[in-house]
């Protein structure tokens, strides 16, 4: 299993890039998984649904199984967020894990950056950024800059930079 990160400010197009990158990687025969860290609270079930009601009643974990998917929800209930290393152990075997968030993580990352958003790059302040995917030139950049619209080239870059997990 190898790991590679996608970084960037909110609204820069990380999810859109991933929507194009993942099919490109799958087309190459890879099994791809994703871990996304959000700084916001997340809800994946809705009030009134059984899973929501039982989670709210106090379950630490609720596992849902349907005909086409299963999902495990784990309530932290005041406990600290688990480490990325721990979360990686929760995934089934795959070829590549893409990680969004975990800015302090010790793994290579590709920043998604758009000049039109009017923000500075996260590179070089964030650790691990080894390249930038952009729709424009990136001033004074010393890491590779990839065309945001070329999923094939980005997939090549990701696969060349991803590191094997211990």
Kindly describe this structure.
With 166 residues, this protein is α/β, with parallel strands linked by helices. Helices cover 24% and strands 25% of the residues. A hairpin with a 4-residue loop joins strand 3 (61-65) and strand 4. Helix 1 crosses helix 4 (151-161). The longest helix is centred in the first third of the chain and has 14 residues, at 14-27.
Descriptive labels:
single chain; 7-stranded mixed beta sheet
Number of strands: 9
Beta-strand content: 25-35%
Nearest-angstrom radius of gyration?
18 Å
Termini Cα gap: 9 Å
Structural class, from secondary structure content? alpha/beta
Give the proportion of residues in helices.
Answer: 10-25%
Q: Given the C-alpha coordinates, what overall shape results?
A: globular
Task: Write a concise synopsis of the structure shown.
The chain contains four helices and nine strands. With 166 residues, it is an alpha/beta fold. The longest helix has 14 residues, at 14-27.
How are the SSEs ordered, and which strands pair?
Layout: E1 2-7, H1 14-27, E2 32-36, H2 50-57, E3 61-65, E4 70-74, H3 84-90, E5 96-100, E6 109-113, E7 129-134, E8 145-147, H4 151-161, E9 163-164
Helix pairs in contact: 1-4
